[in-house]
Design brief:
The protein has helices at about 1-20, 25, 30-50, 55-75, 80-105, 110-135. By secondary structure, the chain is mainly α. The longest helix has 27 residues, at about 80-105.
Length: about 140
């Protein structure tokens, strides 16, 4: 899914700038905002998941991602769209670390390495491909 969302954003940012009558620089916050939120809060929400429970944190974060996606779809302004995307990024910061924790919970050390490598490779490759394909 990373390649799809990256591709959609690569194609949509210039359209958003025209649609909301703003600059490309402002529209780029549709992409930058959630990335920043995820990077800043992933360690915090990962630790919180250790305290409150990984499964509970994953489902709560996932539900917020879904609500954020809906809010993005009905956003009446660029500010509302960017805000909804940032909320989605915050929730994504809860999905990522807890997902790794859930996947690796019962795995042996050898299996953990494979699980983390596969998840990291597919997520990174997918996101990179999506942005490149969307730009084309």
């Amino acid at each position: 899914l990373g390649w799809l969302s990256g591709g959609v954003l690569g194609m949509v940012v210039p359209v958003l700038a025209r649609e909301f009558d703003t600059t490309i620089e402002v529209a780029m916050w549709v992409t930058i905002g959630p990335m920043f939120a995820t990077a800043m809060f992933a360690p915090i929400l990962g630790k919180l998941a250790d305290i409150l429970g990984r499964t509970r944190m994953w489902w709560t974060s996932f539900a917020i991602v879904v609500v954020s996606a809906f809010l993005c779809g009905v956003a009446p302004s660029m500010a509302a769209l960017i805000g909804a995307r940032v909320v989605g990024g915050l929730a994504g910061a809860g999905v990522g670390p807890t997902g790794f924790g859930i996947m690796c919970r019962d795995a042996s050390p050898q299996q953990r390495g494979v699980i983390v490598a596969m998840q990291t490779a597919t997520g990174t490759l997918g996101g990179s491909m999506g942005i490149a394909l969307g730009g084309m």
